[in-house]
Amino acid sequence: MHTRSLAPLLFALALLGAGAPANAADAPPAGAPDIWRWTDRFGHLHYTPKIDIPPERRAFAEPASAPLPPGTTACDAAWNRYRANQACFDAFRVVGGGLKPDAFRYCQELPQPQPCR
Description:
alpha+beta
């Protein structure tokens, strides 16, 4: 079964608490933005809060924390983590380009990875 087809089921299970982490340290902090990974109709990958996903693409979206497809390179995985963390910070941006103080409580600062070859 393809992972994308599981996204709605996994989301429903998460809402019911069936997918809750066994260890509280593995759970995202309360109030942290829920970042999702999705591809637009042109094939471009996006990382945004679920509310920002166009309705016609929601069925294909998956949590940014979901496992990447088999065969994903280490470089692509590093960029996935980086983009997901940038999207987390985006949820805390204010007019003028600053960040709300809570951003650093919920989001992890990561250096930008080297370009993939």
